[in-house]
Amino acid sequence: MLPFLPIFTFAQVTPIPTPTPTPQEIVQPQEVRPLPGQLDRVRMFNSNSPEVVQTEGVLLSTFPPTGKAAAAAHLNFPLQGRFDLFAHHIAKATSPEDLRSLYLGVIVHNPTKEPVKVDILQGASYLSQPDAPFMELPPYVENPLGTVYAGPGDRVMTEVLQGKRQSIFPPQLVIPPGQSQMLLNLPIPVRGLTPPLNGRSTLMRLQSSGTVYVASLAMFAKQNPDCSERAPTLAEWQRLLETGNVAGPRDRTPTPPEQANGPIIYGRVAGVAQGSEWKAQLVDSPNAVNLSIPKPGAAFSYGLSLLNGGKLGTNQVQSADMLVRYPDTAYRAHGNYGIQYSLSLPLYNNTGSTQTVALSMQTPIKQDQLQGGLRFLEPPAKQVFFRGTVQLRYKDDQGVSRTSFVHLVQRRGQQGEPLVTLQMPPGDRRLVQVDFLYPPDATPPQVLTVSTLKQAGN
User: Fold this and answer.
1) Burial per residue of 94-111, b for 16 or more beta-carbon CB atoms within 10 angstroms, e otherwise
2) Domain check: are 31 and 55 in the same one?
3) What are the start-end ranges of the E strands in 29-101?
4) Are 362 and 376 in contact (CB under 8 A)?
5) Are residues 94 and 186 in the same domain?
6) How far is CA 224 from each of CA 102, 227, 228, 229, 310, rounded to the nearest angstrom?
7) pLDDT at residue 457, as a whole number
8) Which of 175, 237, 340, 368 is surrounded by the fewest CB atoms within 10 Å?
9) Among residues 387, 396, 397, 389, which one has the least CA distance to residue 442?
10) What is the pLDDT of residue 258?
11) Residues 312, 216 share a domain
């Protein structure tokens, strides 16, 4: 996965680097269970290809091809009711002389004979620079106000998780019959940045009272008479929609799903996927009401964002299905960017003694089939594979209801710190609810692990 590149400032004196110890592989021989449940049927307008945009054009269009100069750029897929919109793109200057801002536009068209209302339930859109620069953060930080983040995707997911709608968005658009309006018209500036590269992440949860067509488009800023930049107008966006082809340069073509051998190229997503939330009750069996804790010293895990080549022995692929897509883009929404995982764990201590139970999120080394168990690295590798906020709801050991938001940074092979640790007496039942939105720039898979600490002397 290609993240936005951070901007670093170097001191005048370069310190002598500390040698990095060679990572040692740790194998945890434990059960990995497929995640119960499935994605819901809410549609996701998923605009993530090309990730790096250097030529103007259509990023994703669900409009009909009729009357369009490039018919293949339009997927003819109307949207209605609840749907989400996710867009994640990078602007990179093609030369030191051309430092125009790239504008990201989202146009919504009402093809009906009645006004259509589009409610913006939650939504956020941020730049890498200056809104949410990538920075080093500790692995575990309390984040009750959503002020801890590294990268725009991280910041956007936290705000939507917390039910916010950024002030730049109105609560509702009313689109007259046969007309269009801009849902988004925001710049990705590169001037003054070294290197001249910047990115924008956007997620919106929408509710439409009628049928609409939606398109995301990329256009360079227009110039005012005084040489300052201005945003493209609705008419200019409409002209690009009607006359433009797909934006470029195109990303790597993905590996066909039926190809069994060789490396997997997942590709970037451009299309409408099915699924906004994976809601599940994690219990012992389909008809059970409890999740029995592991034996002391043991653990089990549930896969998160499992995908082809990274099923961790579960034979489960969680990647959202694509309902329509461009032929050179991803066959499935691998990574499930912007999708919420809402997981309930009704923990039950079925032993005869008090047990210490911990719940953790972990980032094991990707495997399709387990080789002896989950594999970790100590110390973890340098690559950050997950940075995002997790919401936890539970009753603590004093019976007080708690809601906490924890920001995690996990590197490849990192075992992770406990999100919550509970002292559970014999027969105790404790419901723990875990919610998070899978963030852009994360690399799957992860796992949610329940472990029972071994008692001293046992």
Assistant:
1) eeeeeebbbbbbbbbbbb
2) no
3) 31-33, 38-39, 43-47, 52-53, 57-61, 79-92
4) yes
5) yes
6) 15, 5, 5, 6, 50
7) 55
8) 368
9) 387
10) 86
11) no
* Contact partners, residue 212, CB within 8 Å, separation at least 6: 78, 79, 80, 108, 109, 110, 111, 116, 118, 175
Domain final residue pick, 189, 224, 243: 243
Same-domain pairing of 288 and 392: yes
Concatenated DSSP letters of 318-384: -PEEEEEE-TTS-SEETT-TTPEEEEEEEEE--SSS-EEEEEEEEBPPP-SS-SSSEEEEESPPSSE
Same domain, 325 and 228: no
Number of domains in the chain: 2
* Residue 44 within any structural domain of the chain: no
Distance CA 248, CA 150 (A): 27
Q: What pLDDT, on the 0 to 100 scale, is given for residue 455?
A: 78
What is the domain range of residue 410?
Answer: 27-35+277-452
Is the distance from CB of 313 to CB of 375 less than 8 angstroms? no
Task: For residue 3, say if its preceding peptide bond is cis, omega within 30 degrees of 0.
Answer: no
Is 226 found in the same domain as 291?
no
Residue showing tokens 């997620």: 203
Q: Is the dihedral of CA 203, 204, 210, 212 positive or negative?
A: negative
**Phi and psi angles of residue 159, each rounded to the nearest 5 degrees, phi first:** -65, -40
- Is a pLDDT exceeding 90 seen at residue 260? no
Q: Is the peptide bond before 195 cis (omega within 30 degrees of 0)?
A: yes
Query: Whose structure tokens read 């590709």?
Result: 267
Q: Over 90: is that where the pLDDT of 19 sits?
A: no
DSSP-based three-state secondary structure for 153: helix
pLDDT at 92: 97
Same-domain check for residues 314 and 211: no
pLDDT, residue 18, reads 64
> Is 7 within the bounds of a domain?
no
Bridge-partner residues for 202, per DSSP?
A: 87, 125
144 DSSP assignment: T
Assess whether 288 and 237 both reside in one domain. no
Residues 340, 344: Cα–Cα separation, whole Å: 13
DSSP assignment of 189-201 equals: --TT-SSSEEEEE
- Is the torsion defined by CA of 152, 153, 159, 165 positive or negative? positive
pLDDT at 454: 87
The token pair at 219 is 């256009």
Domain end among 221, 243, 265: 243
Confirm whether 249 is domain-assigned: no
In a domain, 272, yes or no: no
> Tell me, what's the pLDDT at 346?
98
Lowest mean pLDDT among 38-47, 228-237, 257-266, 388-397: 257-266
